[in-house]
Amino acid sequence: MKKLLFIVMASVLLMSCKSDKDKTQDFVDMYNRSSGMIVNNKIKSTKATTSNPDQVDISVETEYEGSGMESDLVTSALPDLIGQAIRSEKLGKELFDRGVKFNLKVYGLNSKVILDKTIDNKNLPKDVDFKSIAAGEKPSNQQLNSILESFNKNLPIEDPSTGTKITSIKADAENNLVYTCEVPDSFKTALAIPGTEEAMKEAMLKSGQIKQVFSQTSVLGINHIKYLYTDKSGKVLKEITITKEEAM
Description:
This protein is of the alpha+beta class. The chain contains ten helices and nine strands.
């Protein structure tokens, strides 16, 4: 018992004696060890570096072109998502509280910088435990919607080729992912034709984008994705539901 107490006390004293520089470097090492957690078919890699105790530089290499709905949506949400992940770690929270700046650069195709932003701790949702989620614990409905708020605050985003706008991304009571899409008036007639939803669903599945969404959200426990197509007044014109089994 005395030996165990001595080990604990020594550990506490060792941590308290670490300099700010040591703690910042410890965070960088921890981030790089766990960087594979956010890698997918679009995000190739991420790395943290530090040149002084009060600054951490984070780079993210992606396959995004830097334009388009998906690119705009994901890259604009990354600062919040990475910021929440940093704060869910005790050491990351300590660095935030100390005023350390986390400078994020996201690179697209051909190493083009598509996002350059300093992560701000002040505006991050405070009820998401990314560490538990990474360990396999499914988020609650409140936590899931807090994560999705990082996307919602950058909406609406419009597809210039069709005029369709994504106006909301939420989780319903069953933790299904629900996209609300506003369509131009010219789409109303087409959406009213019987059987349109089957044709749209088939096109979505063939594109591969739905599979990507399920792959990227599998850790969140999402098994269904719903698309609500509305007119400008918010009236639902068509609803399409796709299951994980259909997409994968």
